[in-house]
Amino acid sequence: MMTFRPASSPYGRPTRVALFSGNYACTEDGANKTLNRVVEHLQTQAGMEVRIYSPTTPVPAFPYVGDLISVPSFRIPTRPDYRIAMGLPVSLQRDVRAFQPDIVHLSAPDLLGSAALGLARKMGVPVVSTLHTHFDTYLDYYGLGWLKPLLQSRLRAFYGSCDYVLAPNPVIAEQLRVEAPSARVRVWARGVDSALFHPGRRSAAWRALQGFPEDRPVVVFLGRAVMEKGLGVFVEAVRRLEQARGPVSVLVIGDGPALPWFKEQLPHAVFTGFITGETLATALASADIFLNPSSTETFGNVNLEAMACGLAMVCADAPNTRALVQNGRSGILCSAQDIGAYCNALETLLDAPSLRAAMGREALNVSASYQWSQILDQIVGVYREAVSMPRPERRSPYGLGQFDPAPRFREPAHAPLTATVAKPND
Q1: Greater model confidence, 399 or 391
Q2: CA distance 270 to 161
Q3: How far is CA 412 from the centre of its chain?
Q4: How much is the pTM?
């Protein structure tokens, strides 16, 4: 593993990173697990000090990494598993100033991220933003499509005001270069734990325990049970397939607000609920075809985990899947809402064991290129570049001209941190 320290701090101490997250440990999803990996790597491999500012819950969704500071927030009425911070209170602004970050890392273009962006500009600290979610694509699933132009405009302004934006795939990176030309855009993918997810996890005993016939391929869904993950398309594709050819073995891994609806629509499917670690890896590797009709992902960590398990892929034809899945080689890409296309793809793979196996091998080969150690070292490299960036090149909030390069007073290195208690939100 390549390890290195970023450019030295102006005060001859370890580089400090202030990370602002929408739900760092509130919900165990791909974005939050990725951020936790980032923090662990920064602290253990790059020798940095990291402080995370995020909404919290009385009981974290999973064991998190780092020094987490609770930001006041409230539950989203229709999505109680997520919280929204209304901004960054003055007391926490003082905490950030006392911490004296050398880098401000924003993981979401929400009100907290916007407030942190403005504070970073006042402090003269470079801003790195990572793109994890296509927020504008969610609106159609909640009857708010009319807000999409306004949100897209705000997203362009937000990312255009950052010094660096890390996009998950080349298609989104190119789009950002057009829409936010002032930002330095880099491609930063995600990795997979190949020691955990691999074909050797496949278990005939596990399949038998779930009641799956030995000779019938299993179609699997993995992800949060929320409608924007394409649950409606998944259900309709399975139903049509069953009408045409009889019972289909279906495995659903995950939990979420729409799980009761999902179970009602697919009464014969096996639902594991939320599982992790080796249990998850065994369940995933024991399937045969990975069906992911979601078109709202920016990367799709679950796709990479399925590929590492050697599964043939059937996915929505979207920028994130085109970056991972080569149509006709490691899987089949379908038009996002074309139920017939998904049915045809599934039927082809169900009836062709040799093709299914060949696509699974190719998917496994592709996944080998996505090692977490190399992926995480890339973000450290961007930090090095950002820390050494001349002050006149740093952007002002929301693209309103160049950042004022005049020197500003910053507290001395020995300034004490504000006493902040990470009290979780109710």
Answers
A1: 391
A2: 46
A3: 36
A4: 0.79
Note whether 276 and 284 are within 8 A (CB): no
Contact 198, 309 (CB under 8 A): yes
Of the spans 10-14, 80-84, 189-193, 410-414, which averages the highest pLDDT?
Answer: 189-193
Task: Kindly list the structural domains of the chain, giving each domain's residue range(s) and its CATH number in brackets, ordered by start.
Answer: 16-191+371-399 (3.40.50.2000), 199-367 (3.40.50.2000)
Q: What is the token pair recorded at 384?
A: 């090095």
Distance CA 394, CA 406 (A): 12
Q: Residue 257 has which token pair?
A: 């607000």
| Surface-to-core class of residue 114, CB atoms within 10 Å of its CB (0-12 exposed, 13-18 middle, 19+ buried) | buried
CB 378 within 8 A of CB 6: no
Whether pLDDT at 412 is above 60: no
Rounded Cα gap, residues 331 and 358, in angstroms: 9
pLDDT tens track for 94-125: 999 999 999 999 998 899 999 999 999 999 99
Short-list 128, 119, 73, 65, CA closest to 97: 119
DSSP annotation string for 339-399: HHHHHHHHHHHHT-HHHHHHHHHHHHHHHTT-BHHHHHHHHHHHHHHHHTS-GGGSBPGGG
Residues 242-268 pLDDT 10s: 999 999 999 999 998 999 999 999 999
Q: 227-263 burial by CB neighbour count: b if 16+ within 10 A, else e?
A: bbbbbbbbbbbbebbeeeeeebbbbbbbbbebbeebe
Query: Greater confidence, 74 or 231?
Result: 231
pLDDT over threshold 50, residue 415: no
